[in-house]
Amino acid sequence: MAFDPSLLRPLFPILSQPAYEHPLTYLDNAATTQKPLAVLDAIQNYYRTGNANVHRGAHFLSDRATNQFEHARHTLAHFLQAPEQSHIIWTKGATEAINMVAYGLEHVLAKGDEILITSLEHHANLVPWQQLAFRTGARLRVLPLTSSGEWEAEFAHYFSDRTRIFAATQISNAIGTTTPMQTMLDLAKQQGAFTLVDGAQAVAHYPVNVSELDCDFYVFSGHKMYGPTGIGVLYGKQHALEVLIPYQTGGEMVRHVSHQATEFNVLPYRLEAGTPNIEGVIGLAAACDFLSAQDRSALLAWEQSLAHHVYTRLHKEGGIELHSPENSTTLVSLSVPNVHLLDLNAYLDSQGVAVRAGSHCAHPLMAQLGVSGTLRASFACYNTLKEADRFCDVLIDAIDLLNDE
Ligand code: PMP
């Protein structure tokens, strides 16, 4: 059965408000998605009926909060097809998760070792590795992928016996390219490298199976998959998590402390210092339940059809440079020679159309494309064909109005 986004609209009341007297057309989902009522209710219910610190008190509310909190870990393990719930570490988001790994693996790197990333990375999956390379004398190498996700010639030699860490995104946030992840992971594993997959742009669209992917680490943020901000996940295999040196220490992550020494706790607590974001964890589990209740293949096909519809319409227009591949899963990224991106953005905004203009935290990729930035429309489960058309109509009006040629 075809996916019907109109059935989901009532679950997202934020979308029914006007923006400057126009219907709000929210197409900035790659930055953050809106949250369904189930997520809002879960957070409110937690504060109304279950607020207490977890793992600490021996009282009614503390037990209730702890049960909900650990049940959420179970939900996430199931959502990602992780073998054990202790392999799920709560973080603030993808950025913090990548930093935890980059700091935690510092001790395995020696001068001359290599950290390999791709040319499509978000700064969150670039800067932590670059800084790690600076600290250790390791070399940061960049696997050149074309903007359509294909290999440039002679790629295999980038994976060498010096490759200690390979970290790559599943989907580019800036241009929507899907990377050849399984092939890359296989090559990295043949060299015995630690592997990290940045799933920030994938989890809202694709069902994820970390066991099948067989990566050492998988990271994402809750707010890009209908969950709250300030919560994300670091999944890791047991041995990979155990190798990490905790980059934060303090309460919760310890078993016994004396003035002379500290015995760290077991996983997952060993990597979770301090009072966690309990409401975020509970909200994120509700977002997973929301996504799991959808027909995921029909949802993905719907989102792809929206991206494809916009791509095809704009392709027919003259003067628009499309930077996304034609089969992009979830977004369309473009620029218009002779028209400033921020002017386009401002015009779209004045008509209630929310998109994103800029470099999308991917300066090296923008340089590869030869642009200073792009205008990005990104889709989610609640977007309709009418909204996709409205974006195209308003964009075309804006170009007519602003083109100074
Ligand atoms: N990786 C990718 C591919 C992203 O799109 C983003 C967010 N734009 C991040 C990492 C960082 O996510 P966060 O800011 O939520 O930590």
Topology:
Elements (H helix, E strand, L loop, with lengths): L17 E2 L2 E2 L1 E2 L10 H14 L9 H21 L7 E4 L2 H11 L9 E5 L8 H10 L2 E5 L19 E7 L11 H10 L3 E5 L11 H4 L3 E5 L10 E5 L1 H6 L10 E4 L4 E3 L13 H15 L3 H21 L4 E2 L8 E5 L5 H10 L2 E2 L1 E3 L4 H7 L4 E5 L6 H18 L3
Parallel strand pairs: 3-15, 5-6, 5-7, 7-8, 8-9
Antiparallel strand pairs: 1-2, 4-10, 9-10, 11-12, 13-14, 14-17, 16-17
Helix pairs in contact: 1-8, 2-8, 9-12, 10-12
The site of 4'-deoxy-4'-aminopyridoxal-5'-phosphate has 13 residues, from helix 3.
EC number: 2.8.1.7
Protein name: Cysteine desulfurase
Organism: Marinomonas vulgaris
Could you walk me through the main structural features you see in this protein, from its secondary elements to its overall organization?
There is one protein chain. By secondary structure, the protein is α/β, with parallel strands linked by helices. The protein is 36% helix and 16% strand. The chain is built from twelve helices and 17 strands. The protein has a seven-stranded mixed beta sheet, with helices on both faces. A four-stranded antiparallel beta sheet has the order 13-14-17-16. It has a two-stranded antiparallel sheet with strand order 1-2. Helix 1 (37-50) runs antiparallel to helix 8 (278-292) and helix 2 crosses helix 8 (278-292). It is globular and about 70 Å long. The protein starts with 17 loop residues before the first strand and ends with a helix. The mean pLDDT is 95. 4'-deoxy-4'-aminopyridoxal-5'-phosphate is lined by residues 93-95, 122, 124-125, 169, 173, 198, 200-201, 221, 361.
